[in-house]
């Protein structure tokens, strides 16, 4: 499947069906065209994905992709590059049974789907042929901790943060009231935390219902990534794998939970060029992505070399010049391959909407400065040239304090004020922070 290096798996929390129920402003999470491009970028940049089994069924973009065996989603599942997360992992997962079991457990989205017999018949016709593709190697188990207890840990951590740093447009007294009731209820019966939070908010926080439920979704996503980092399922992912979490950007969670890389950066000019995904290309045929994983071919070899060097560069072990040369070589092969082998031009379904440009971005947010270490954080964001995708922050880089002024004045850097939260984050979880939060909790076998 390509490089044998430790991978950074991205848990796609933004594809959660609850996000569709309580949508974030300016963020579209159910567009198939956007999903196709995103999966292509994932394959190009060596960041495979983890998807909950329920997201495959309930997210419209994912479900549309399941019906096409040549879609990027189906192809990358077959390549074991997209893994399906399942609480009840078995040698052959039945997605239909996931819905039936969820309905029996009282999960609203599954219960509603199963009760609608006409819709359920249509869904089964799509899910049943998929079973042959979902073998053990395509699946991944859940973290080996009680996710309700780890969810409660994150909520408690938020409650301890000063109100002005919480990034939540809800009066502190209301938030603390919801947290106290939630803490009491979950301490008595640690199950279905997001549903329990929703019930409490309906009683005491109705005026701020949307904001509090958006927060509940974000905590759910961060919680899953932190738990996967601290206590991953046995033998399901390559040893040393990192877990990133894709969800709405938050200065609070970025500061609390996510890893900061330390490449060699002394001036803005030392930032190597970032990869771009060619525009005007139709990425809806997943088979076009397969050569990326074949190291014996020129494109796969360039990709493997790039990913190897990138890992060492982010750890501060490779000079920017060497990184820039490897990026340029890989970019040229990407451009040549996609433009020669994929439909493009006026007849392409994506046209220029498929262009992705990764750009170094200054995060102008209080609290992102890492104290007490004398450093400032820079971010790398993938900007989608389309009508349906917000920028996605994929890395945090630490730069020396002595060079901070140069970066702040640089015309090369986009400035991003996170008060405008129409953006996603897909950053790797900090292992030490994950252990502090989840490490003390009881583990499952």
3D architecture notes:
With 445 residues, the chain is α/β, with parallel strands linked by helices. It folds into 3 domains: 8-141, no CATH class; 147-231; 268-428, no CATH class. It has 17 helices and 11 strands. It has helices at residues 17-21, 32-45, 53-58, 60-66, 72-78, 95-104, 108-115, 117-127, 147-160, 172-188, 193-204, 209-230, 251-257, 298-314, 320-341, 404-408, 431-438; strands at 8-12, 49-52, 82-86, 139-141, 242-248, 276-277, 356-363, 375-384, 392-400, 414-416, 424-428. Strands 1, 2, 3, 4, 5, 6, 7, 8, 9, 10 and 11 form an 11-stranded mixed beta sheet that branches. The chain starts with 7 loop residues before the first strand and ends in a 7-residue tail after the last helix.
**Main sheet specs:** 11 strands, mixed
- Number of separate structural domains: 3
Q: What's the overall geometry?
A: globular
SSE order: EHHEHHHEHHHEHHHHEHEHHEEEHEEH
Low-confidence stretches: 345-352, 365-373
> What helical percentage do the residues reach?
40-55%
Q: Compute the number of helices.
A: 17
Total number of β-strand segments? 11
Radius of gyration: 22 Å
Strand content: 5-15%
Global structural class: alpha/beta
Mean pLDDT: 86
Report the end-to-end length measured between terminal Cα atoms: 28 Å
Features:
445 residues, eleven-stranded mixed β-sheet, alpha/beta, 3 domains
Short description:
This protein has 445 residues and is α/β, with parallel strands linked by helices. The chain is 43% helix and 14% strand.
